[in-house]
Design brief:
Strand content: 25-35%
Low-confidence stretches: none
Structural class: alpha/beta
Bound molecules: glutamine
Number of strands: 11
Helix content: 25-40%
Distance between the termini: 27 Å
Number of helices: 7
Mean pLDDT: 92
CATH topology: Rossmann fold
């Protein structure tokens, strides 16, 4: 190929990675701003996803912490519930933090409709109430092992992990970070710390 042609292809590839790849943060309820800021600090282009049209523009999605029942209902109302499910089943990377983890897991409770995308079961609020929130240094198995300041706020406890699910971190005996292919779930809140390594890990999942 001529140099001109190669230069064009190279330019095209750079433009696509910088402009084409947008990461979405579900913008309905919860720690939206914090995730947006963390992704931007990593150099990612971010879209707050409020509609199905927004979802079409992103190559990965974060479901923030908040209140899982509310987020589930608002996803239904916004016409996003089935769309997010379909995209995730099609391979789009999705990371759920805390309430987002509850949404990715299988449900057991009738009032909350989960996306039920991961082979995980969780018990809501099992670490206690808001006043029982805590931070603990935990070992995460990212591309390498790292010590991470994990913040827990009315966090879910993972009560069952399916065969296809890889546990990337534990707090005591309980899994707190799980990956199943294109799906990632953390019961803690990396967006509430200055440590961006889990966001970087997710961006890599989106670029991979
Ligand atoms: N307890 C909340 C729920 O059940 C989750 C809390 C959080 O996301 N920090 O949805």
């Amino acid at each position: 190929m001529q140099w001109k042609g190669r230069k064009f292809l190279l330019l095209k590839r750079i433009m696509q990675s910088a402009v084409g790849k947008k990461i979405g943060v579900l913008g309905l309820q919860g720690s939206i701003r914090e995730h947006v800021a963390a992704l931007r600090a990593c150099g990612a282009t971010v879209v707050e996803v409020l509609t199905a049209a927004d979802l079409e523009r992103v190559c990965g999605l974060i479901i923030p912490g908040g209140e899982s029942t509310t987020i589930s209902k608002l996803m239904r109302r916004a016409g996003l519930f089935d769309e997010v499910r379909a995209r995730a089943l099609n391979g789009m990377p999705v990371w759920g933090t805390c309430a987002g983890m509850i949404l990715l897991a299988q449900g057991g409770e009738s009032e909350m409709e989960p996306l039920a995308l991961m082979d995980l079961e969780v018990e809501r609020n099992a670490y206690g109430r808001q006043v029982d929130s805590f931070q603990e240094s935990v070992l995460l198995e990212l591309t390498e092992e790292v010590l991470f300041p994990a913040v827990f706020i009315r966090a879910p406890k993972v009560s069952r992990v399916g065969e296809g699910v890889k546990v990337l971190a534990k707090c005591g005996d309980s899994p707190i970070m799980c990956r199943q292919g294109n799906l990632l779930a953390t019961s803690f809140h990396p967006e509430l710390t200055d440590d961006r390594r889990v966001h970087e890990y997710f961006i890599q999942m989106c670029n991979g």
